[in-house]
Amino acid sequence: MSDALISSRGKPSASRYDAIVIGGGHNGLVCAAYLAKAGRTVLVLERRHVLGGAAVSEEVFPGFTFSVCSYVVSLFRPHIIRELELVRHGFHVIPLDCSLSPLPDGRSLARWGDKARTRRELAAFSPRDAERYPEFGLAMTKLARFSKNVIDAPAPEPTSLSPRELLRVLRLGRGFQQLEPELRYLNAKLLTMSAADFLDEWFESDVLKAPMAVSGIIGTFLGVRSPGTAYVLLHHYMGEIDGAFRAWGFSKGGTGSVSNAIAAAARSYGVEIVAEAPVERVRMQGGRATGVVLEGGDELSARVVVSAVDPHRTFFGLVGEDRLDPAFVAQARRYKLRGSSGKVNLAVDRLPEFACRPGAGPHLEGDIAIAPSLEYLERAYDQAKAGEFSRRPYLNVVIPSLVDPTVAPPGKHVISCFVQYAPYQLAGGPQGWPEQREAFGDAVVDTLAEHVPGLKESILHRQVLTPWDLEQQFGLTEGNIFHGELSLEQLLFMRPVAGWADYRTPVRDLWMCASGTHPGGGIMGAPGELAAKAMLGARSV
Amino acid sequence: MPIPTPFHPRTSALCTSMLWKDWAGYHAVRSFDVAHEREYFAVRNGCGLLDVSPLFKYELRGPDAAALLSRMTVRDLSRLAQGRVTYLCWCDDDGKVLDDGTVARLGEERFRLTAAEPTLAWLHRLGRRHSLTIEDHSERTAALAVQGPTSRTVLDAASDGTLPPLRFFGIAPARIRGVQVEVSRTGYTGDLGFELWMDREHALTVWDAIVDAGRDHRLVPMGLDALDVTRIEAGFIMNGVEYHGAHHCLVESRKSTPYELGLGWTVSLDRAPFVGQAALRAELARGSAWATVGLRYVWDEYEALFARFGLPPQVPAGAWRDGVPVYEASGRQVGRATSGAWSPALKANLALASVRAPYQEPGTRLEIEVTAEHERHRVGAIVTKTPFFDPERKRAP
After folding, report:
1. What is the pLDDT of residues A180-189, one digit of tens each?
2. Residue B198: which domain range?
3. Is the pLDDT of residue A232 over 80?
4. Is 3.40.50.11690 the CATH classification of the domain at A2-53+77-93+252-335+485-537?
5. Which of A44, A115, A485, B159 has the fewest CB atoms inside 10 Å of its own CB, making it the most exposed?
6. Contact A97/B299, CB-based, under 8 Å?
7. Which of A214, A52, A148, A65 has the alpha carbon at shortest distance from A519?
8. Could you tell me where the DSSP H helices lie in chain B?
9. Beta-carbon contacts of residue A345 (< 8 Å; ≥ 6 apart)
10. Number of domains in chain B
């Protein structure tokens, strides 16, 4: 599938383009598609043999297609689906209806789309929480709707006095004023509290709080008790499919299908996509970017160069520290990547059977959180602080082959385990990871096997990705899945660097368009779209 | 009061939502779960298993069977090859549609007609002078639809390989767990799919065999709610929704002709006389007053309307079928949307509509009534060619 989308390998057809996008991840492709749709000649250069970056499907083991890295879709902007006609190009998302949290004592909580069912399940643990839960959902949805305006537009710059920025801040302020007063306070709490403290104010049962709190720490090197982590809880309520909030889904054929659909759209607008074409550096002349130099020495010219790789690789790899202003370098150095998660993908010969709810059923068709308590999560973090991977990590498990038969042979399944914590900085340094890779994989399988007794015997193949592997194979610096932590001080007008949140860089005609820019990571497409619109709006290309 | 179908012991055990409806006098599952979404996505990614026994089924045998069906319907059935099925409709003398359904040629002189409404009397009335027997098999024949991309694999497994390769709209016998069934590559979802016809006493054996074979192929029992969304995506009209059988209409304006319903392609005019022929010929010469079209809501306008109330766009949870006025730009009503649904696969809000003939060209911008916060508004809707959803696998060999 992906092959047909690649124009050529290694060698572009021309030497001059309006725009060259470095990196064929989903944001790079979105950006390229928008630029080409506006009539620009665009080249996308991808280092690997497949497109998609971290939103990639690969048949790692014969017959089994893994969403190797990113594994669910939620925040992808609906207007991008429409504007790029992605459905026509194969975009298809199957919603997740259930969130299952197994406990070590054999009990479990499943949260469903069916509200009454969720209430009954919760009431078995806490009748109070059962009623608070929908209240919480409503409050979060209201706040998320306010925040949604933030992710669908470039970040307003509060320090600027330019009329355009003032207007943006004003508009946002007005949206904020329209929130009910108690929601405004709630928002302030979200911005300052830890996920655990925030949830403690609402709920009493750990079985509910722990899997919820996790969304505050994913992709950060923070714990559920670290201040500021509450905010990211909101992101979960911003997910939307078909205008319905808080819906997560599997991309048919794996998340690579999202990238492929975008690539197909991009190609239909005339984008040239070249794989196996690693860029060595951005070519510069008189302080501006004029093109790129490929590994191997070929030079290509462009009016603008767009980096779809993370800020660290952009500035310290493609540009080079010595070509940047020291003050900027100092700031960019402070940008935290600190990968904290890994991924274990399993091919199994039967459907995993959970001890808490034996047999097949819809309870396995959503996501499964191994997060029995806040205490468990904090302990997992404690090990990470000491430079070790968690022996009993948090796992977010999905079995996409249950609802999408195209990704595994009949009767067999793929299991995707997102794992936190796996700190990039091991006590002995990140280069110690290859040696610890299998031990890490074992810890994950052991953790899951406590809930799935027959798991180990059913494994046909295992792919273990440590933060080191994410860096080496996918180019994610320090293995950070979001191109930099989604922590408050690195969001909005401070992403990636204060003063440079508008997709520009200190290098003229070098732009950024990926998860290291506003509004951040996840298969969202927003950075790519907003960057393209910023470039076109500024008539830079 | 509705009665159970032959599959009721299985469907009732699974229908934990208790969501049922009356389909032609039978209990039919609307949705096994409180929401039909899971069933919908199974049809588009795995397969759905649907009890379609309430269809009316008639078996016609004898040397004049083809002649009677050709006289009754708009098609020339003498040209239908053995092992083939065709979709068609039939009219009254004025060329107004009575019902639509399929005819399968099971043997040289053996046909099966399916219909949404009882048709036995009509068959007898027209068949008085023909040499054939007409039997009502509605009760004795149970029917199942297996629809979706994995349906062929499931049936291959369930039939131990006795299922011959079937082209689109082909029909052939097969054995499932020792039970003789007829399998047709037909359906109402616009996807790769099959329908199985069997003696009612073996219904549960066949159901169980298919459920077993489907275990590894994402087979999910489905109800009529999911079916309704898929049939709108496929652009299929429905008796009682897009049109009303002429025999039920109090007023002339409620009746429709095949041309008005977009079924002109089924009409074979130049042949031996058939019911409604003269009227249809005249209509073809004169031009039809109405046309049935697909409409696609202009999403930006839809979203903007709800944003005025501070709401996210609210799409209907399932298919709807209460008529909605359709206007031209000036505000004059030029038709009605008869049913519609949000398409999760296409990410589009869709409707089927009956509009005055001048407004039927694809690309024409019309306006459709939308109720937001109990206020009536209008948003743009673009005339779109149907099927909205038309995967290659539907017809692929």
Report:
1. 888 888 888 8
2. 8-55+139-222
3. no
4. no
5. A115
6. no
7. A148
8. 8-14, 37-45, 65-72, 120-126, 151-158, 203-214, 224-233, 277-286, 299-307
9. A60, A66, A68, A414, A415, A416, A417, A462, A463, A465
10. 3
Residue B235: closest CA among B191, B198, B289, B275: B191
DSSP state of B149: T
Same domain, B179 and B46: yes
- My answer on whether B37 and B159 are in the same domain is yes
Regarding whether B151 and B50 lie in a shared domain, the answer is yes
In one letter, which amino acid is B115?
A
Looking at the complex, report in whole angstroms how far the Cα of residue B34 sits from the nearest Cα belonging to chain A.
7
d(CA B60, CA B137): 10
Determine the Cα angle at A52 with ends A50 and A58, to 5°. Answer: 55
Residues of chain B contacting residue A78, judged by C-beta atoms under 8 Å apart? 347
Q: Verify that B293 and B395 share a domain, yes or no.
A: yes
Of B35, B310, B346, the CB nearest to A113: B35
> What is the distance between the alpha carbons of residues A396 and A531, in angstroms, rounded to a whole number?
31
Residues B98 and B14 in one domain: no
Q: What CATH code would you report for A338-477?
A: 3.90.660
ipTM: 0.92
Could you tell me the two tokens for A258? 């999202």
Residues of chain B with pLDDT under 50: none
CB contact under 8 A, B41 and A403: yes
pLDDT score recorded for residue B23: 98
pLDDT digits (tens, 9 = 90+) for A321-351: 999 999 999 999 999 999 999 999 999 999 9
**A410 with B217: Cβ contact below 8 A:** yes
Same domain, B188 and B298: no
pLDDT in tens, B317-333: 899 999 999 999 999 99
B88 and B124 together in one domain: yes
Q: What is the pTM of this model?
A: 0.94
How far is Cα B369 from Cα B216, in angstroms, rounded to an integer? 44
Q: What is the pLDDT of residue A156?
A: 80
Using alpha carbons, select from A256, A249, A232 the residue that is nearest to residue A400. A249
By percentage, how much of chain A surpasses pLDDT 90?
79
In a domain, B241, yes or no: no
Query: Closest chain B residue to A253 measured between Cα atoms?
Result: B45
Q: Decide if B38 and A97 are in contact by the 8 Å CB cutoff.
A: yes
pLDDT band at A433 (very low <50, low <70, confident <90, very high): very high
Chain A nearest C-alpha distance from B296 (Å): 13
Residues of chain B neighbouring A403 (CB-CB closer than 8 A)? 41-42, 45-46, 218
More confident residue, B109 or A160: B109
- Judged by a CB distance cut-off of 8 A, whether residue A326 touches chain B is no
CATH of the domain at B93: 3.30.70.1400
* CB A507 within 8 Å of CB A281: no
Q: What are phi and psi of A281, to 5 degrees?
A: -160, 165
Report how far apart the first and last C-alpha atoms of chain B are (Å, whole number): 43
Render pLDDT for B346-395 as a digit per residue (tens, 0 to 9): 999 999 999 999 999 999 999 999 999 999 999 999 999 999 999 999 99
End-of-domain residue from the set B136, B155, B185: B136
Q: Are residues B169 and B71 in the same domain?
A: no
Instruction: Copy the structure tokens of residue A497.
Output: 């660097």
Residue B178 lies in a domain: yes
Which of B167, B188, B222 delimits the end of a domain? B222
Residue A245 pLDDT level (bands cut at 50, 70, 90) = very low
**Average pLDDT, integer, range A472-487:** 94
Closest CA of chain B from A155, distance in Å = 21
% of chain A at pLDDT higher than 70: 97
A263, containing H or E segment:
helix A256-268
Closest by CA position to A113, among listed B342, B20, B33: B33
Question: A127 — contact with chain B (CB < 8 Å)?
Answer: no
* Rounded-to-integer distance, Cα A495 and Cα A515, Å: 9
